[in-house]
Predict the structure.
Amino acid sequence: MLETIWFVLWGLLWAVYFMLDGFDLGLGALMPALAKNETDKRVIYHAMGPFWDGNEVWLLTAGGVTFAAFPATYAVMFSSLYSALMLLLFALILRGVAFEFRGKVDNPAWRGLWDACLWLGSFLPALLLGVAFANIFMGIPFDAQGVYQGTLFTLLNPYGLLGGVLFVLLFMVHGSLWLAIKSDGELADRAQAMAKRLWPALVIVAVVFLAATWVSTRLWANYLGNIALWVFPLLAVAALFATRLAMARGAWWKAWFASALTIAGCTFFGVAGLYPNLVPSSLDPAFSMTISNSASSPLTLKIMLGVALVMVPVVIAYQAWAYYTFRHKVTEEDLAYEDY
Amino acid sequence: MDVLMLSRLQFAAATFFHFLFVPLTLGLSVLVAIMESLYVSRGDQDYKRMAQFWGKLFIINFAIGVVTGITLEFQFGTNWSRYSRYVGDIFGSLLAIEATLAFFLESTFIAVWIFGWKKLSPKMHATAIWLVALASNVSAYWILAANSFMQHPVGYVLRNGRAELDDFLAIITQKWAVLEFVHTVGGAYILAGFFVMGVSAWHILRGRETALFTKSFRMAAVFALVFAVFTAINGDLSGKEVAEKQPSKLAAMESHWRTQKAAPMYLLVVPDEKNARNSLELLPIPGALSFLAFGDFSAEVKGLADIPAADRPPVLLTFLAFRVMVGLGTLFIVLAGLAWLKRKKLPQNRWLLTILVWVIPLPYLALQAGWAVAEVGRQPWIVWGLMRTADAASPIAASQVAVSFAAFILVYGLLGLAAFYLIFKYARKGPAPLAAVEGR
C-alpha cells in the first residue's frame, strides 16, 4: 500500500515537473523563432525569470524521491541512462547560468553566447526527457543485476526519439502559450500564432506516439485489465482539444492550463501503464524494477509520506503565491531591471 | 583508469567546484538579510544600496551554486549506484527531505527577491531574503546530516542486504551531524565575512563610497571574528569526535604512526607514507596530540602502523589538508581580530586593508582543505565501517565516465572563469548611485 502511494506520488512529481518546467523549456527552445530583436528576447527572459528556478526544483525532488522511495530503481535508472542524464545536467546548467549571466555584460557577443546556451539548455532537456521516458515506457535493456547492456545510442531508437519529439512539441506549445499570456503586441501575436501552428503537429505526433505505444510497449496490458485507467489518456486527449478550443477563443490562461493538463495526462498515461513497474527491463520482465523489489523500508516510506503531506501543500501554496505575484504581463518597467 | 577512479575524480571535482560557491551563499545571504532589515527599520538608503550591491554579488554566486548542486544529487545514481542501492533507504530520504523542506523555499524566494523590489512592500521583500538565508542554512543541515551518516553511521539496521532506517531522529540529531553543521556553517560565515571585508577594503583604499563600505566592513568584521573563534572551538570538539570514532583519520591528520601514550604533536613533520613513518619530526609539544584528541595529556593515541594498510586513508593529503585548515583558521582569528580593533580608523590603516584584499582567497582554500580532511580522511570507506568506496561505484563503462569527466572539467572550468570575471567586475563597480536607488 505504502509502495503504491509512493508510486503515485512519484508519477505526480514528474507530472508537476513537466507541467511547470515544460513551459520554460519550450519557450527557451522557441526563443530564436519568436524573438525578432533584443527587446523581444528580454521580454522572453523576463517571462521565465521569476519561475524557472522554482520549477527546476521539482526535477530535483522527483529525482530525490526516486532515490528515497525506490533506491534500487534510482540506481538502475540513473546508471543506465548515464550519458543521457549527463547531457541533460550539463544542458540545465547552461540554461540556469544563462538566466543569471546574460544581462551582466553589455556586449552583443556575450549575450549571443548565453542566448545559444539558453536554447541548447532548453531544447536538449525537453528532447532527452522525452527520449528517457519513452525508453522507460518501452523497457530498458538491463540484466538481473541491473547492469545496463547498451549505449547512449541504444536509447535513440525510433520509439525513444518519437517520445523526444512529442515532449519537445508539448513543451513548445506550452511555452508559446505562456508567452502569449506574459507579453503584449507583436510578440504576443507571434506567440499565439506559433501555438496555433504547432498544435496540429502535436496532434499528429501524439497520435503516432499512441499507436507506437500499442506496438512497442507493454503499457496497454494495464489498460486492458482496468477500464478506470482510461481516464488518463482520455484526459490527455480532451485537454489537448480543450487547449485548441481555448486558443480559438483567445482565452490564453485557459489554454495554458489545458496544455498543462495535457502534459499531466500524458505522464500519467505512461505511469499508469507501467504499474507496478517503475523501470521495466526489456531483456526479461523478471529483471524489471518494481515497487516491491525496489522500495525503501516501510519506516522510510512512512516518514517521507509525513514530510510530503505536510510540506508539499506548503510548497504549492508559496509557489502559487509567487506565480500570483508575478502574474502580470512583462512591462517596460520590468525591463528596466538590468538583470536580463 | 577504471570506473572507480574516474568516478572518484569526477565526484571530487564536482563537489569541490560546487563548494567554491556554497559557503558565500550561506554567509552572504545572512549578511544581505541583515542589511536589508536595517534599511527597513532605519530607512537609511545606504543599507538599501548595500543590500543591492552585495545582493548582486550574491546572485551571481548563488546561480552557480544551484546549478552545480543538482549534478551532485544525480551522480549518486549515475556513478555510485551500488552505494545508492545499499544506503538509499536512509541517504536518499535525507536528500529528498532537503529538497522539499529547503530547496523549494530557497529557489522560489530568491526569484521573489530578485524581481520583487517594486512588487512587494519593503518588509515583505526583506522577509524574502531572510527566507532564502534560512532555507540555505536548513538545506546545509540536511546535506551535512547525510554526510554525517557516511562518516558515522547510526540509526540503521542491516536487513534485506542493505542498510535500512531504524531510528530517524538518531540520524538527524547525532552529535556528529551537529558538529559538522556548526563547523561547516561557521567556516562559511568566516568566508563571507572575509569576502565582504576584502571587497570593502578595496573600495575604502580608493576612497570610494567610504561611508557605505565602512558600514559593510564593520558588520563583516564582527561576523568574521565571532565565527572564527566559534569555528576554532567547535573544530576542537570535532577533532575529539574524530579521535573517538575515526582513529585512522585522526592518525592521518597528524601523520601519527606509532601507537603511544602521551603522544606529542610535532610542529614540523614530513610524512613518508611508503615506509609507514615520518622522515622528519621536529619541535615536539609533549602530550599535545593526546590532549587535543582526548582532553588528557597521557591518553593513548592509536598510530597508523597499527591499522591495516588496507584500512588507512591517504596520509599525505589528509595531513597537509589538515595543517592548511588549522593554520589558516588561526590566521583568520588574528586578522579578524585586527580588523575589529581597527574598525573605527580604517582609512589610516592601509596596510591592514591591503592585506584583507589579498586574503580573500584564503578562506576558500581553508574550506576546501577542511572537506579534503573529512572526505579523503574517511577513505577507504564510503560509509565508515559499512561499505568501501571500492564497492560503491556503478557497473558502467569507463569510457562513459571518462567523457563526462572531461566535460565536467571543460564546462566547470569555463563557468568558473565566467563567474570569477563577473564577480570581479561587479565587486569593482561598486554600488549604484544614491539617486538611482531612490528612483527605484
In short: The longest strand of chain B covers residues 277-285. The radius of gyration of chain B is 23 Å.
